[in-house]
Amino acid sequence: MASHIVGYPRMGPKRELKFALESFWDGKSSAEDLQKVASDLRASIWKQMNSAGIKYIPSNTFSYYDQVLDTTAMLGAVPARYGWTGGEIGFDTFFSMARGNATVPAMEMTKWFDTNYHFIVPELGPDMKFTYASHKAVNEFKEAKALGVDTVPVLVGPVTYLALSKPAKGVDKSFCTLSLLPKILAVYKEVVADLKAAGASWIQFDEPILVLDLESQKLQAISTAYAELESALSGLNVLIETYFADVTAEAYQTLTSLNVATAFGFDLVRGTKTLDLIKGGFPSGKYLFAGVVDGRNIWANNLAASLDTLNSLEAIVGKDKLVVSTSCSLLHTAVDLVNETKLDNEIKSWLAFAAQKIVEVNALAKALAGQKDEAFFSSNASAQASRKSSPRVTNEAVQKAAAALKGSDHRRATNVTTRLDAQQKKLNLPILPTTTIGSFPQTVELRKVRREYKAGKISEEEYVNSIKEEIRKVVELQEQLDIDVLVHGEPERNDMVEYFGEQLSGFAFTVNGWVQSYGSRCVKPPIIYGDVSRPKAMTVFWSSTAQSMTKRPMKGMLTGPVTILNWSFVRNDQPRSETTYQIALAIKDEVEDLEKAGITVIQIDEAALREGLPLRKSEQASYLDWAVHGFRITNVGVHDTTQIHTHMCYSNFNDIIHSIIDMDADVITIENSRSDEKLLSVFREGVKYGAGIGPGVYDIHSPRIPPTEEIADRVNKMLAVLERNILWVNPDCGLKTRKYAEVNPALTNMVAATKLIRNQL
Ligand code: GLN
Ligand code: ZN
Fold first, then answer.
1. CA 333 to CA 10: how far, in whole Å?
2. What is the C-alpha separation between 295 and 384, in angstroms, rounded?
3. What does the pLDDT look like over 598-641, one tens digit per residue?
4. ipTM for the complex?
5. Residues sharing a CB contact under 8 Å with residue 647, sequence separation 6 or more, in sequence order
6. Is the per-residue pLDDT at 703 higher than 90?
7. CA distances (Å), 296 to each of 17, 303, 611, in order?
8. Which of 253, 246, 261, 244 is closest to 220 using CA atoms?
9. Is the CB of 645 within 6 Å of ligand 1?
10. Which residue out of 116, 435, 483, 496 has the highest number of ligand 1 atoms within 8 Å of its CB and is therefore the one to mutate?
11. Cα–Cα distance for residue pair 98/95, rounded to 1 Å
């Protein structure tokens, strides 16, 4: 019985690759230094899997930036603006594509399916010349071989690669990137020949595109592509790997009919329906790589349950054809639990990071082969049992309160137009009110104050005074700028989710539980392990302190339940909706406490609501339903005169505009400036919108200062589509990553532009 790992994190247990990359980019270390760190990391991962007993060990899942960009390099698909003239692609060209350079901007980056990992989007056109320009796959295969480890080289599959590509600038938007299939297959054939010559006996093609709702044309491309590769692949065992969801019946049919394939890999954690497809028929003589160990979360596997699943699969595909695997690459989970010094032993016993998941995969494979490690299985069983019964996990009052929510819709009693009138009487705001999204620049000194307070180096009093001073500065600045609705600047927050998680029960935090987000950037999601409750008010002190410094309305600033959920490692022992409702109740208490303390405008950020949208259309309506419901729960209890704002990032929400309306916030501020005002097109097309709306008037991701005329122009464009009395003026998102030298002039211009237009109205 064999074991397989789909892919492994690259960053290293303590983010070694991140630091090596950043030091290289800063010119502080050489290319050789960076390569040394990288090859040491690869070697240790291969050896780790090898000694754990994994049979099919992946290679080429390492990357200096991103595996899709690696594929672009492999195919020589470098956009002309980088001036590459041929030959093997080196760090210069590679990192210019990833990050831009002094003269040329980077390629676009976007989310990898529904994960928080971002890939570099290939830019293709009919004239692109493809050549075999990066030998990374074969080099890594040889490197592992020299270490005595026989690996399975992994390539991003040709159809997934093309389907995720976009037409380059200047190419007709309707250009079908899949039409380039014959051209890229020519290069794939060269790569395959190279791998064969180097002694590979297996090859893995990742085709996660197969989990989407695919048009027949894309399914056809799968058949065509792999038929075309057939002779090149002869003599090799070919694994076609899918992940992140179940495959549709049509995709399953197409996939399992591929002659060339020896093996198929499926995600059986998120893709439970695939199990039924397999039970309905699996091609005889082929291998099933069964992804039963979750690559997207940090929970220890329920080994007994997995073993049951595997046993039932064994009956279908045969003993020697079943391979135990991970549900997807372990890239999307934390690296190694061994480095968690702050988690207590009970919580630790419930967890498995990438390094522990390897051991789980192998233990399952051995158990299937009749060599069950009884001690390992029984300690796993007791950990599962302790997690089920621990009083730290279950809080009956919370469960009851969450259960009582069912059956009600939770809508504010009055409609939004009436509420806005009541609010306006109280707030008395000018037309086109100006505001910002929440955070102000986080200076080095500010981070130092928080760090020292956490480490016990400064007293609470000193800490509170420093933060108060910071708030006072931010308030004074906004008054000088003549902004209408103020924020306190969020100086006490490290991160908009962590800040709340640390004050809620049911959350745990890791020291090294980093997950790659893009390039060298990693995030450290909190772990939600138990029922969520709010022991005491979280933001009231800071918000009322800030309000006491000004006569203008001060926004209370909260993170919404869906965003807290989507940016955490969540429980797998109850539906995500349930966890959301629990968080919603905690935030509801906070909203009501803020209202009692005299805060009249409260913003509840749902920055990540859109990104939690399931991959498969059939699951989207239900997600949006409970997500939007969760948001409404937070503010159903406030008076008409309390103005509820929400804020959303990410520019692609035209598809969920009706859910946004259904959130029933009084005002929404929304990222807009990088999307060619795509948002406005929905209103142009007649979507009725009655609440206040602030489509961002400038991009905060860039250091560029937007000129007054440019902002005025944007506002005028919005006025052409939206009624003037619902329009707000604000930046795209929080200002935390910017410098005051940028924020001051940008906001000055924003207010000037607003006044210019007010005078013309
Ligand atoms: N209020 C948060 C801030 O301004 C919102 C951040 C976000 O949308 N990502 O920082
Ligand atoms: Zn935002």
1. 11
2. 18
3. 999 999 999 999 989 999 999 999 999 999 999 999 999 999 99
4. 0.99
5. 437, 438, 603, 605, 606, 607, 668, 669, 670, 733
6. no
7. 21, 17, 15
8. 253
9. no
10. 496
11. 5
